[in-house]
Design brief:
InterPro entries: GMPP_N, Man1P_GuaTrfase/Man6P_Isoase, Man6P_isomerase-2_C, ManC/GMP-like_b-helix, Mannose-6P_isomerase_type2, NTP_transferase_dom, Nucleotide-diphossugar_trans, RmlC-like_jellyroll. The protein is of the alpha+beta class. The chain has eleven helices and 30 strands.
Length: 455
């Protein structure tokens, strides 16, 4: 059985912890492990390999975090642009044998009752062998309005229902045969493709054309134009709500989609006052609060039922119960800044950078380049750059010249110069970069050549 892990999504409801280039599934929230890593560990017990479906930025995050787990038996499919779950799953299934059973899971869910989970998966695998499309219905623990529901008669699906209002959700909860739609599935790759072709032929045909036109050397890379041509649709709309092969397995597995700060609060360990544990939290008569921050001390006095999240470049304060409105904050953020997109620490396939200072006309970064890695060959239109080597040896290319810059030495790159930074040693390279110019945004990069095939 192959675990298809869907890594799309930016987790905007967990901003400012979650950003586009470091979404919640890769943030290490639980015992220094990410939801993605927990997903891999959990499903590795029942699956032979992982098939990661992501974009190019998430691919490198996944690669690094799989390396931390010593997992190497993975396949990758990179989407140039997301088109929802039906095309993502279809493209992955097209790369597998028709009789291969796949377990499709999001990368950002938490499941704590793994014993019951393995029992349910065993039942799902048996139903999948019988050519069924299996979905997992989470046994509800309260009247939730944030999830879709599956109405069931035993394991037969009667209907799929959209996210309800509270009154309707209460009726669903009390009825006993309605389940939260988990977004997890199990089936044979070929059976799913047959049903997709039958009920959503446009999604199938355009996905097949995109797959056939893709680069399949080491990882499957779908071309941007081909991906854009595929109709955007979810697996529920495209197949599950139409097929007569669908079965639902009631699953009491202590599941959470960790989709908001309220749900995150429920999953984190607490102190004696029911505040989330935080070494830098000073609490004076405060209780029932989510306090998140790693750099600054956070002091609270006489507050209850609050959410306080500090990430260095952003501070979120909310009442518990209102954290779904974080999406509205992100909409406002997008109008004026890039805070929705990236943290002060940016993760790149070659290493990381940390923004130390960002003001009008200049920006200062700490850049760490992994051994034997290099940045893209690039130029900037609006900024000049000064590089100072803190540790290691930098191999620098500026236009036609390539030279070494040693510890405590520096070099200068003028706006418009074609340049590249390489760490050709077996030790990390650390430099301080001072950018000076009329614009220092991350999008002032023209990539001429890139090892990682980024746009």
């Amino acid at each position: 059985m192959t675990n298809i892990i869907l890594c799309g999504g930016s987790g905007t409801r967990l901003w400012p912890i979650s950003r586009t280039l470091m979404p919640k599934q890769f943030v290490k929230l639980f015992d220094d492990k990410s939801l993605f890593q927990l997903t891999v560990e959990r499903n590795s017990k029942v699956c032979d390999s992982q098939f990661i479906v992501s974009n190019i930025e998430q691919y490198f995050l996944a690669l690094d975090q799989l390396d931390e787990l010593n997992k190497s038996n993975s396949k990758y499919l990179l989407e140039a642009i997301g088109r929802n779950t039906a095309p993502a799953i279809a493209l992955a299934c097209m790369a597998l044998e028709k009789d291969e059973i796949v377990l499709v899971t999001p990368s950002d869910h938490l499941i704590k009752n793994e014993l019951e989970y393995e029992i349910v998966l065993s039942q799902a695998k048996k139903l999948a062998h019988e050519n069924n499309l299996v979905t997992f219905g989470i046994t509800p623990t309260f009247a939730e309005t944030g999830f879709g529901y599956i109405e069931a008669d035993g394991i037969d699906v009667k209907a799929f229902h959209e996210k309800p209002d509270f009154e309707t959700a209460t009726l669903y909860f009390e009825a006993g045969n309605y389940y939260w739609n988990s977004g997890m599935f199990c089936f044979k790759a070929g059976i799913f493709l047959d049903e997709l072709k039958k009920y959503s032929p446009n999604v199938y045909e355009y996905s097949l054309a995109a797959f056939n036109n893709s680069n399949k050397k080491n990882i499957i890379r779908i071309q941007h134009e081909d991906m854009l041509a595929i109709p955007e649709d979810s697996i529920d709309y495209a197949v599950m709500e139409k097929s007569d092969k669908v079965k639902v397995l009631p699953s009491d597995i202590d599941w959470s989609d960790v989709g908001s700060f309220d749900s995150l609060f429920e999953e984190l360990p607490k102190d004696e006052n029911n505040n989330t544990l935080n070494e830098k939290h000073i609490s004076i008569d405060s209780k029932n609060n989510l306090i998140y921050g790693k750099d600054k001390y956070i002091a609270t006095i006489d507050i209850e039922d609050m959410i306080v999240v500090d990430t260095g470049d952003a501070l979120l304060i909310s009442k518990k119960g209102s954290s779904q409105k974080v999406k509205e904050v992100v909409k406002e953020i997008k109008k004026t800044t890039q805070l929705h997109n990236i943290h002060l620490i940016g993760h790149r396939p070659w290493g990381t950078y940390t923004v130390l200072e960002d003001s009008h006309g200049y920006k200062i970064k700490r850049i760490e380049v992994k051994p034997k890695k290099r940045l893209s060959l690039q130029s900037h239109k609006y900024r000049n750059e000064h590089w100072i080597v803190v540790s290691g040896v930098a191999t620098v290319t500026v236009n036609e010249d390539t030279f070494l810059v040693n510890q405590n030495e520096s070099t200068y790159i003028k706006a418009g110069d074609i340049h590249r930074l390489l760490n050709d040693t077996n030790e990390p390279l650390v430099i301080i970069e001072a950018q000076v110019g009329s614009y220092t945004g991350e999008d002032d990069i023209e990539r001429i050549e890139d090892d990682y095939k980024r746009d």
